[in-house]
Structures are given as structure tokens and as C-alpha cells.
Design goal:
By secondary structure, this protein is an alpha+beta fold. Helices cover about 45% and strands about 15% of the residues. The chain has ten helices and six strands, in the order ααβαβαααααβαββαβ.
């Protein structure tokens, strides 16, 4: 039986739900390294490894996790992480961060990971803080300009390269310093990304009204509003709760706001971060 026949004949996305049901019924834990449905089945860590998966998932995955309704996880918060994986994470979050800013932050995160635990929400906080610090051109762009500029401009452009490099390092250091690494995440947390015309029909207001009335605590960790009305806005909303049930209830209620709009197909709703409680 080939892949297409199997996918058509069986609802493979039910596999993880059946597995969890059986595990709860017989009171056993699902092994973290369980094939397909284990928590690290599609986990990628090393820098070169992660870069290859971002470019072409089939380079390290013989089956597609989407076929089974499970998520690919690229681990960022560790000493082996690479800047390509960090850049990919910034794009997932909908952030406009230059590669040079990401390189500077990645180097600091790798150093920190040698001496303390860093979670994905820490990495996200750093990237979001970096997204607020923008320059007209990155140091790499200015360096190329300097190499191709007339002699009378080269000295000025080289000085600009040094100044922007110093800014990128300073911005990365400031972003890392803004994160409180000492606090433990004792509650469940999820970050959702919503893209679309959030201000039409007061969609954003309605979503936040749902969050206010929910059993969760929430924070709008980033809101990107483009200058043109034709472009979509992006909101990152972090939810915290004492149970998965409360998180799922709130996410479904927020999703219902979008689904009840006049053009639900124009919105994109996705979970970009979910954490288990650490005690």
C-alpha cells in the first residue's frame, strides 16, 4: 500500500488522540521517543540540522508530520542552535528582524544556554524585543555598499558599518537583558498568532474581550499594524492558565470570533508556542 492510498483510506490524524486516550485509560505515560507521536519524534536541534529542515524537511524526515496531525519542533533555546533556526522562528512570529540582529542575539543565547536553562518563551521575548529595534540598513548591507562605493565614500560607509554593528550588538544585549530568566513557568502557556484585517468589524477588540472574560491571563506580546489598509495586521497573544482545558477553551473561543466574521477565510490563526508547566 503506497502513501497516498494510506492517507486516503485512514484518518491518520486520529492516531495521536487514540494513543492519548488509551494511555489515560491504562494509566501509562507515552514515551518521549515514541515514533511518530512522541514529543521528540519530529524534534530538530543542531544548527546545521535545523537549517536543512527549514530549507527542505524531507532531508531529515522520511514522513510528513502534517499527515499525522503532529507538529515539527525546531529547538532554539540551547547551545547548539544556529542563526538560521532563530531567523526562521522570527518569521514564524511575524517579526521583521535583520539577519545581522539575529546573528548577534544567537551568539548571546548560545553563551547563556551553557550556564542556565532557556525556554522557548525566553527566545520569543528576545526576538520580539529585537523587532522593536530597527535600522534603515543592516551592517552586512552597508558593508557591501562600502565595497562597491567610490573611494571618496568608502571611509564614511566603513564608519557607518562599525556604528551599525555596535548598534546591533547593543540591541541584542538589551533584548537579552530585558528577559527575566529566574522566573519558573508553573502554569501552562500558549502563544497564538493571528493575521488578517484585525481592525475590521472590531475583530481584535472582540478577541481581547474573549480573553478578558476567559479563565486565562493574557498579554498582547506584539502587534504589527502595516501602513496600508490593504495589508494584513499581525497580533501575538500569549495565554496562561492552570490547565490545558482552560487554554483550549480560550483558544477555541478566540477562533470562534474569527470564524463568525464576514470573511473568516482571510484570517490566519496558528499556535506558535506551547509550553508544559515547569515545577
Amino acid at each position: 500500500m503506497n502513501k497516498e492510498d494510506t492517507i486516503e483510506r485512514y484518518d491518520l490524524k486520529l492516531l495521536q488522540h487514540i494513543e492519548r486516550y488509551v494511555a489515560q485509560a491504562v494509566d501509562v505515560k507515552i514515551p518521549f521517543n515514541n515514533c511518530v507521536t512522541g514529543s521528540v519524534a519530529f524534534s530538530h536541534k543542531a544548527g546545521v540540522h535545523s537549517k536543512a529542515v527549514v530549507a527542505d524537511p524531507s532531508s531529515y524526515e522520511v514522513i510528513n508530520p502534517d499527515d499525522f496531525g503532529v507538529e515539527r519542533m525546531i529547538q532554539f533555546a540551547h547551545r547548539l542552535t544556529g542563526w538560521n533556526a532563530m531567523s526562521h522562528r522570527a518569521k514564524v512570529l511575524g517579526l521583521d528582524v535583520s539577519d545581522d540582529q539575529v546573528r548577534a542575539a544567537t551568539s548571546m543565547i548560545k553563551d547563556l544556554a551553557d550556564v542556565q536553562d532557556i525556554r522557548l518563551d525566553h527566545v520569543d521575548e528576545i526576538l520580539i524585543a529585537l523587532g522593536r529595534e530597527k535600522t534603515p540598513a543592516s551592517s552586512s548591507q552597508l558593508r557591501v555598499m562600502a565595497e562597491n562605493a567610490p573611494p571618496e565614500l568608502q571611509a564614511a560607509l566603513k564608519d557607518a558599518v562599525v556604528a551599525v554593528e555596535n548598534f546591533e550588538q547593543s540591541a541584542a544585549a538589551s533584548a537579552v537583558a530585558s528577559v527575566n530568566f529566574d522566573t519558573q513557568e508553573e502554569r501552562m502557556s500558549t502563544t497564538i498568532k493571528v493575521q488578517g484585517h484585525l481592525f475590521d468589524e472590531s475583530i481584535l477588540n472582540k478577541m481581547l474581550d474573549v480573553a478578558v472574560d476567559s479563565p486565562c491571563e493574557f498579554e498582547v506580546s506584539n502587534l504589527d499594524v502595516p501602513p496600508s489598509n490593504e495589508e494584513a495586521s499581525t497580533a501575538l497573544i500569549k495565554l496562561e492558565a492552570d490547565s490545558t482545558k482552560d487554554l483550549e477553551f480560550t483558544m477555541l473561543a478566540i477562533k470562534a470570533v474569527i470564524d463568525s466574521s464576514s470573511s473568516p477565510e482571510e484570517f490566519n490563526f496558528e499556535v506558535v508556542q506551547s509550553s508544559e508547566p515547569v515545577v
